[in-house]
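Feature request, filed as a ticket because there's no other form

It would be nice if the structure record came with a short human-readable summary line next to the tokens. Right now we just get the raw output. Example of a typical job, pasted below so the devs can see what we mean:
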Amino acid sequence: MTDKKILIVDYDSGTLKSLTDFFEPYKFQIIKASDGQSAYEKFKEEKPDLVILEAILPKIHGFDLTKRISEETHGRVPVIIVTGLYRGPQYRLEALSTFGASDYFEKPVDKERLLRSVMSLLEEEEEIEEDLPDSESVIRNLSQRIKT
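Raw output as currently delivered:
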């Protein structure tokens, strides 16, 4: 999984550093942002495999950013929300069902649970990619069907 990119977004520099430091030993490529707008720009440029973000973000709210990423990638890029403000099952449910988040954690986050979630979501992504045929074989098969 060393080739996987994770975009971590938090307005709080301490939390951003803490999460970055936590994931560093796992050899992920870490991309950081401190607001929703720069996070979205980095998301478009870097094409991360997974996003971890705070719900409360300046410029673009975390829930809105989650929904945008989920819609644009058709749910292929998991987004995990880690928040200190929105507490309770109603926010978790809304994030997962309405905005397309893949998981939801309240601060202070249990980093071991977060790590298990990240690893699980990235594994699922790899399994899906393995199940998909490569584009060249699809084109070859379609060309043969058209000819006959």
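Something like this underneath would help us a lot:
The mean pLDDT is 89.
The chain has one domain: 5-147.
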